[in-house]
Amino acid sequence: MVVANDDIVLTPTSYKYLLEDVMQLKKQFKEPLGWVSARCDAARPVQNIRSNPFNEKLNYFKYPYEDSIIPMECLSPIFGWISDEAWNTFKFPPLNWYSDDVHCEDLRAAGFQHYLSRSYVHHLGSQTIGLDGEKLTAQAKPWIVENRPKYAEDWFN
Question: Comparing C-alpha atoms, which of 118, 88, 108, 134 is closest to residue 100?
Fold first, then answer.
């Protein structure tokens, strides 16, 4: 299944690269796939094409790592593929902020592996939930403390 945020714009290769990468990962690895998600211009640093996590030089307006599929512990499935098995193993928690993190961690604990695709989408960035990270964290924290205390310990202490 492919999930898409309501504030993204696809490019001519967004869907093509996403599915090509999923097919390659299925052939290459035996571990079950969790999320395989696109890069964008408004997301966590490694997923964000504006960051340069490997200190690379630009090559024709792109960093070389953008042409690689990268294993990830946690990502934002802004435009992402997920297997039926992974989707049915855990549902998204009832959170705005941190729902991606909780879902990714739950799936990783169950043995699923996530990957950052070569795919790219333009992302307007949190237009539907707001930009006040402190407020959104405060709203999510009680649920995480109660329902995923280990994550709360790792994330908030």
Answer: 108
Domains of the chain, earliest start first: 2-128 (3.90.550.10)
Q: What is the pTM of this model?
A: 0.90
Contact 8, 78 (CB under 8 A): yes
Q: How many other CB atoms are there within 10 angstroms of residue 157's CB atom?
A: 5
Please state, in angstroms and rounded to a whole number, the distance separating the CA atoms of residues 151 and 20. Answer: 33
| Residue-wise pLDDT tens digits, 98-146 | 999 999 999 999 999 999 999 999 998 765 566 677 888 899 999 999 9
Q: Using an 8 Å Cβ cutoff, are 37 and 78 in contact?
A: yes
